[in-house]
């Protein structure tokens, strides 16, 4: 396997990365570089577009001295698993990694999406009872299903490809459902863990959906954060339902990743303040 030496560290400044495809939309550099500054560390965080074919070499390059690790986003959270030396219990159970931690030449995969989501839902005042519906069946959806089931929730998985939803629930539990088969009047939490709506204010994972059938106290949580108000959120709000974007989850998972890399527990407000006014 070839190693990507473009990641090499200059001097002693620690570095971390985001590997994604696409990557240009990412707000992670703003957050992590603000955290470096707050912690008094002269580090640097960069987002890099990494096609699937290039992932093995980029991951191998993380073993170089001075590199703290990397975050992973679409489409790498599941495919990275065999490239790592060890997995945290959460990452192994979820079957997806969003954070790689470099320790003395070893690469450890972790998943901070799951606790990041739960912290964000708590911030948003999400109901803690009643069924939760998760839209999607990729790495982010796996983290959501695992976290919600660990919290004792009944979880329904809705995906445009039913077979993928069924495969996910066979591994992690929950029930795969078509949109028409969900008893929406009972669903108190709707989480969009798909990429539908990312960068496209007209796209939605639930076209022609009657949000008023959700209970009045229901929360619609869209992991997408660009645009700041997705079509899913807008239509939910028009129906009088509470809706939030994924900035809270983004900030919480970033805080946990930064702590794993550096040992510094930076307040989540530092990450959120770095995002102010940049998602519209």
TrEMBL record:
Top enzyme category: oxidoreductase
One Pfam short name: SDH_C
Residues where shikimate binds: 26-28, 73, 98, 113, 225, 253
SUPFAM superfamilies: Aminoacid dehydrogenase-like, N-terminal domain (SSF53223), NAD(P)-binding Rossmann-fold domains (SSF51735)
Residues the record marks as active site: 77
Record: residues binding NADP(+): 89, 136-140, 159-164, 223, 246
Gene Ontology BP annotations: amino acid biosynthetic process; aromatic amino acid family biosynthetic process; chorismate biosynthetic process; shikimate metabolic process
Stretches assigned to the SDH C-terminal domain: 246-275
Protein function: Involved in the biosynthesis of the chorismate, which leads to the biosynthesis of aromatic amino acids. Catalyzes the reversible NADPH linked reduction of 3-dehydroshikimate (DHSA) to yield shikimate (SA).
Subunit structure: Homodimer.
PANTHER family reported for this sequence: BIFUNCTIONAL 3-DEHYDROQUINATE DEHYDRATASE_SHIKIMATE DEHYDROGENASE, CHLOROPLASTIC, SHIKIMATE DEHYDROGENASE
UniProt family annotation: Belongs to the shikimate dehydrogenase family.
Protein name, as recorded: Shikimate dehydrogenase (NADP(+))
């Amino acid at each position: 396997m070839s190693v990507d030496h473009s990641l090499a560290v200059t001097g002693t400044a620690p570095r971390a990365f985001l590997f994604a495809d696409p990557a240009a939309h990412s707000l992670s550099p703003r957050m992590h570089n603000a955290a470096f500054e707050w912690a008094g560390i002269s580090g640097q965080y960069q987002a890099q577009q990494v096609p699937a074919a290039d992932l093995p070499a980029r991951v191998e390059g993380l073993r170089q001295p001075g590199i703290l690790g990397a975050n992973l986003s679409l489409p790498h959270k599941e495919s990275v698993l065999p490239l790592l030396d060890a997995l945290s219990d959460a990452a192994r159970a979820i079957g997806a990694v969003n954070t790689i931690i470099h320790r003395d030449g070893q690469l450890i995969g972790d998943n901070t999406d799951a606790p990041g989501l739960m912290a964000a839902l708590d911030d948003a005042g999400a109901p803690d009872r009643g069924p939760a519906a998760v839209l999607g069946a990729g790495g982010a959806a796996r983290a959501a299903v695992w976290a919600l089931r660990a919290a004792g929730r009944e979880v329904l998985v809705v995906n445009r490809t039913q077979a993928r939803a069924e495969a996910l629930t066979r591994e992690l539990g929950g029930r795969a459902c078509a949109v028409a088969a969900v008893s929406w009047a009972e669903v108190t939490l709707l989480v969009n863990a798909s990429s539908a709506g990312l960068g496209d204010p007209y796209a939605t994972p639930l076209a022609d959906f009657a949000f008023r059938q959700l209970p009045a106290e229901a929360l619609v949580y869209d992991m997408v954060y660009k645009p700041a108000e997705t079509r899913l959120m807008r239509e939910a709000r028009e129906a009088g339902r509470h809706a939030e974007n994924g900035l809270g989850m983004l900030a919480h998972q970033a805080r946990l990743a930064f702590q794993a890399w550096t040992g510094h527990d930076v307040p989540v407000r530092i990450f959120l303040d770095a995002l102010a006014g940049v998602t519209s």
